[in-house]
Write a structure and sequence with these properties.
Layout lengths: L1 E5 L9 E4 L10 E10 L1 H8 L12 E2 L3 E9 L11 E7 L5 E9 L6 H5 L2 H14 L6 E5 L4 H12 L3 E6 L4 H6 L3 E4 L4 H6 L6 E4 L6 H8 L5 E3 L11 E2 L6 H13 L7 E5 L4 H10 L5 E5 L1
Parallel strand pairs: 8-9, 8-11, 9-10, 11-12, 12-13, 14-15
Antiparallel strand pairs: 1-2, 1-4, 3-5, 3-7, 3-15, 5-6, 6-7
Helix pairs in contact: 3-4, 3-8
Keywords: Cytoplasm, NADP, Oxidoreductase, RNA-binding
Subcellular location: Cytoplasm
Organism: Streptomyces chrestomyceticus
């Protein structure tokens, strides 16, 4: 089978499309014929070796966590799913023709494979950080870097829970944030004053890692009311860095329910082939994403 792999840490040029042995489902796992794989910032952070001190991996390694596809192998002890089912979920080395998933759910009927591949990690992350930051209905949440996949999910989930959301993004994405129910403003010079004029901030999330932790603490008045998923230096300011996933199966079930109710939709901004994985990482690293980027297999 074809698979994207890297044998050394570095830039996108270390990625190679190789012929590899097919993986097989172990106990509690399923294997899918991959139709699409989600592109997440964590993918290129792992490729660069950023997490080696915390979660070391052995090289050579595959790339990708999220995928959608058709079940073709079911491991021992797995119930409620069979070959031919359309699923989306999280696993390992998903930039490939076949991948093993450790968490999955049935795809909502109206979703395409490309759309479904964009949900697993971002929805789990969104649910986790909303919970961790402790924001409640009736309060106001500030989301820095709100137009990407996680931001898109956070805005919609928070609004569904009765939370007011202020989102920062580039000028081109202001209407997009408003379409998701957020009060939108731009980042750049004077952004903190613009946010203050919009009202009191009860909690804040840093999704872009753009060096704004100090300002977010100032806006909330308490580092315990700020969570970052992108700035490894956040703990220097007393801010929690959230990088360990919670229950992915539970998140997938909640994601499917939100999608079915019409309360969650994350658009696919651009698709790539397996051979274009390096380009996908370059674009993801550059930011300014509106929704998700997906590799189509």
């Amino acid at each position: 089978m074809k698979k994207v792999s890297f044998s050394e840490f570095g830039g996108p040029d270390v990625l190679r499309l190789i012929d590899a042995e097919e993986p097989h489902a172990g106990p509690g796992q399923i294997r899918i014929a991959v139709r699409a794989a989600g592109v997440n910032p964590v993918d290129w952070r792992i490729r660069e070796g950023q997490f080696q001190k915390v979660h070391p991996i052995e090289l050579p390694a595959g790339v990708g966590l999220d995928a959608s596809g058709v079940v073709d192998e079911v491991g021992a002890g797995v119930e409620g799913v069979r070959a031919g089912d359309r699923v989306f979920g999280e696993g390992a080395s998903t930039y490939a023709e076949f991948a093993v998933l450790s968490a999955w759910a049935r795809m909502p009927e109206h979703l395409t494979f490309e759309e479904a591949a964009g949900y697993p990690s971002v929805v789990e992350t969104a649910l986790r950080i909303i919970r961790q930051v402790g924001v409640r209905p009736g309060q106001t949440l500030l989301v820095s870097g709100a137009s990407g996949g996680v931001g898109s999910a956070v805005l919609q989930i928070a609004r569904d829970r009765g939370i007011t959301v202020i989102g920062t993004a580039g000028a081109a994405n202001q209407d997009y944030l408003r379409s998701l129910g957020a009060i939108a403003t731009t980042y750049g010079e004077g952004w903190t004053e613009r946010v203050r004029q919009l009202g009191h901030i009860d909690a804040a999330l840093d999704l872009a890692g753009s060096g704004v932790i100090r300002e977010l603490v100032g806006l909330t008045g308490d580092p315990q009311k700020v969570i970052s998923i992108a700035d490894l230096g956040a703990p220097e300011f007393g801010v929690r860095f959230s990088g360990v996933a919670g229950s992915v199966p539970d998140a997938l079930i909640e994601a499917a329910a939100l999608i079915e109710r019409g309360k969650l939709h994350i658009p696919v901004e651009k698709t790539y082939t397996l051979a274009e994985a390096a380009a996908a990482h370059i674009d993801s690293h550059a930011g300014h994403t509106r929704g998700r980027r997906v590799i189509v297999v």
